[in-house]
Amino acid sequence: MSRRLRRLPAVLLPLVLVAGGASACGNDSGSGSSSSSSTGALSAVSISGKPGEAPKVTYKKPMDATSLQTKVLVKGTGATVEDGDQVTAQIYVGNGFTKQKAFSTYDAGKPQQVTVNSQLSPVFADALKGRTLGSRIAVTAPADKAFGQGGNPQLKIGNKDSVLILVDLISKTKVLDAPQGAKQPAPAWAPALQTDGTKVTGLDFKGTPKPNGKLQSAALVKGDGATVQKGQTITVNYLGEVYGAAKPFDESYSRGEPASFAIGAGAVIPGWDKTLVGAKVGSRMILAIPPADGYGKTGNAQAGIKGTDTLYFVVDILAAG
Question: Do 6 and 268 contact (CB within 8 A), yes or no?
Answer without folding.
Answer: yes
